[in-house]
């Protein structure tokens, strides 16, 4: 099978699985235990991984907190800020095209008495600064806007949006779900003043079941206070209780190390493959419409509409040869609310596809996909 659904998950890099293996076999110590070698080895491995993640994000290692995934990180930040700072305000801002883990958490908080403003996006799926400006209030305690969209690949200008918030509303926190962009574009937290950032390992060739949350330290190195999602021991500086998943943390660390080491090469390859695929699709389907921003986007992520076809029928006909999708893996059997908010109608949405590439894909793979897609479209056109 040719795997073209890398926004859902990526394959594990062989170097990552190799690095993880000893911590599933010989090095099984609990890093929270003391003194003996197995525990110290585990603790050292965790801190080395933390350093690699921090290096990728241009932040300090002790600003990285390990979680189970970006969904947990998103829940942790939104609920944690809301609960800890509710006496300072109950207004939260997000966008209408966030990942379900943000939108559903916001709905949950609305049930607890918080007021949430859901920002509109433009036809490219971007949140404009003027839109955000109009929504900000003195009682706003948190703004949460994704860095890159999981369905279209469109990027928000998080450096500019967060800079405005922190400059004009210093008491409001800024969170970004960067799950889709980490390792694919440069994320420099030394220049981007977000307070919180979420990520998952399995979107950058690491294992499933491990993620991280960046929590920026305050002045004088003081830790930002936030109510934990999980209570228990004092792991992760009291932010996230529970025995650390050492093998998964090692996998995330190795994936982050490789992402930084090979960033330019992989970025260039994905850009070239994307251009190649776009040109092939345009030749085959003159009426094709590409959804999302043509430039401000994640390399290798394409969302397109082919008129008069059913995406479900096409995907099912190709399922034994190719992995592609209609959109987010977290919106099973639901029409894309992202494309709807961008202005597409129901017919267009049912004719839309998401293809997302990885570093192992070749031009020959793309050629084969285009030939089979063309055949399927001609056979199954409405």
UniProtKB/TrEMBL annotation:
PROSITE patterns: AA_TRANSFER_CLASS_5. Keywords: Iron, Iron-sulfur, Metal-binding, Pyridoxal phosphate, Transferase. InterPro entries: Aminotrans_V_dom (IPR000192), Aminotrans_V_PyrdxlP_BS (IPR020578), Cysteine_dSase (IPR016454), PyrdxlP-dep_Trfase (IPR015424), PyrdxlP-dep_Trfase_major (IPR015421), PyrdxlP-dep_Trfase_small (IPR015422). Its EC number is 2.8.1.7. Its cofactor is pyridoxal 5'-phosphate. Residues 2-369 form the Aminotransferase class V domain. Pfam families: Aminotran_5. It comes from the Bacteria. Belongs to the class-V pyridoxal-phosphate-dependent aminotransferase family. NifS/IscS subfamily. PANTHER family: CYSTEINE DESULFURASE, CYSTEINE DESULFURYLASE FAMILY MEMBER. This is cysteine desulfurase. It comes from Geobacillus proteiniphilus. The lineage of its organism: Bacteria, Bacillati, Bacillota, Bacilli, Bacillales.
